[in-house]
Design goal:
- By secondary structure, the protein is an alpha/beta fold.
- The protein has two domains: 205 residues, Rossmann fold, CATH 3.40.50; 162 residues, P-loop containing nucleotide triphosphate hydrolases (Rossmann fold).
- It contains 15 helices and 14 strands.
- The strands form two sheets. Strands 3-4-2-5-6-1-7 form a seven-stranded parallel β-sheet, sandwiched between helices. Strands 10-11-9-12-13-8-14 form a seven-stranded parallel β-sheet, with helices on both faces.
- The chain is globular and about 70 Å long.
- It starts with 9 loop residues before the first helix and ends in a 34-residue tail after the last helix.
């Protein structure tokens, strides 16, 4: 379906066209008409499928027609990075619509508090907020949410994982009971069902195929010992000069620094991002990575969900994630919007059960790539090594795709 087939405001369609988008993604095609009908909605689709635009477009369409003098929509998100990203997407879509928005989040130097206070007390069309920071403002008594018409919970499962259930319930007590509530999630755990019963009224449900990496991702696993990981990554980077954007996930903040030190290079920039950094540092780091000034970014799971960085060539899991769903989210950072990419997971003997859970979840056994000879010979590979699926030396893991391939352009 193309956006022109939807009953959207001509100015909004102009913004969409100006940004170069034409066709809807499946979640957008299914969700937008439901939201425009006024029903509550639970929408479940994996990362990178365009969930944000699926609710922003009908919400902004409604604002452009009503022109309210109060805050119309409240969007709750789990992280400050996602709050900023959504706010930026609103600004991109709103350039012809005169719709105002503000991201409300903690973790900075406090300089944005007064601006947030003004927007929350006087009104902005859309407020995008993390629960903790928003509650700090609500405690002051000046927040005006008595005319909120739409409440959106984005990455709802992640918010519940972090422990925001009570905060969400408290925030919803400040908004009118008569409202439209939209819940978007990558997974559908029991807690989501429980929450929906308390804050939603007869919601429609949309669920696209779950727990599968994007079609364009070439996946591989290397079984190795920990002391082989950095030599292998350095080798992969050196052997693939056309990989201009590489994202490496680590399980801990401490390992981020260790990996960055092990990958230092005079020919390209390697940086590490985690929640230990100040917000401004993290924002600047993401800007450098998006603009490809930074070739390799090492991160904790702070970037595994919700952050839209286009055209990442390679994702490397330095550690196999404990939660199988996190594998899907990490891998989903590449091959977004029907492009292509590669994802590699480094598995030591302790990670073998994790990979078994991951393969069970996604319904496929991931290709087991043989180690390069110089790594296998010069570094001891500890116990737990699984034999390759193919004979040694055959079908070595190579890029089997056109990294710039794109069949159509979609809003993600």
């Amino acid at each position: 379906m193309i956006f022109d087939d939807l009953d959207l405001n001509p100015d909004l369609l102009e913004s969409i066209d100006y940004m170069g988008f034409s066709e809807t993604t499946p979640i957008q095609e299914k969700a937008i008409p439901v939201i425009m009908s006024g029903r509550d909605l639970i929408a479940c689709a994996q990362t990178g499928t365009g969930k944000t635009a699926a609710y922003l477009l009908p919400v902004m369409n409604q604002i452009s027609e009503k022109r309210p003098s109060h805050t119309h929509t409240l969007i709750l998100v789990p992280t400050r990075e996602l709050a900023l990203q959504i706010d930026q997407q609103i600004q991109g879509l709103a350039y012809t619509l005169n719709i105002t928005s503000l991201a409300v989040y903690g973790g900075g130097d406090g300089s944005g508090w007064d601006q947030e206070k003004a927007a929350l007390s006087k009104g902005a069309d859309i407020i995008v907020a993390t629960p903790g920071r928003l509650i700090s403002h609500l405690n002051q008594g000046y927040v005006k949410f008595n005319q909120i018409e739409v409440l959106v919970l984005d990455e709802a499962d992640r918010m519940l994982d972090i422990g925001f259930y009570d905060d969400i319930m408290r925030i919803t007590s400040y908004v009118p009971r008569k409202r439209q509530t939209l819940m978007f999630s990558a997974t559908m755990p029991p807690d989501i069902r429980s929450l929906s019963k308390h804050i939603m009224k007869n919601p429609a449900e949309i669920s696209l195929e779950m727990s599968k990496p994007p079609e364009g991702v070439v996946q591989a696993v290397y079984h190795l010992s920990d002391n082989q990981k950095l030599p292998l990554i350095n080798s992969l980077i050196a052997d693939n000069p056309d990989y201009h954007s590489i994202l490496i996930f680590s399980s801990t903040r401490k390992k981020v620094s260790e990996i960055v030190r092990g990958l230092r290079s005079k020919s390209y920039l390697v940086e590490g991002i985690s929640s230990d950094l100040e917000q401004k540092e993290r924002e600047n780091m993401l800007v450098r990575f998006r603009s490809r000034k930074t070739r390799v970014l090492v991160a904790t799971d702070v970037l595994s969900r919700g952050i839209d960085i286009k055209d990442i060539n390679l994702v490397i899991n330095f550690d196999a994630p404990s939660d199988a769903e996190d594998y899907v989210h990490r891998v989903g950072r590449t091959a977004r919007a029907e492009t292509t990419g590669a994802a590699i997971t480094l598995v030591n003997r302790f990670d073998v059960p994790k990979m078994q859970r991951i393969e069970k979840l996604i319904g496929n056994r991931i290709y087991n790539a043989p180690l390069p000879a110089f790594i296998a010979e010069n570094h001891a590979s500890g116990p737990g090594h699984r034999p390759p699926l193919t004979k040694p030396g055959k079908n070595r893991f190579k890029r089997r795709f056109n990294q710039n391939g794109r069949s159509k352009k979609t809003i993600t």
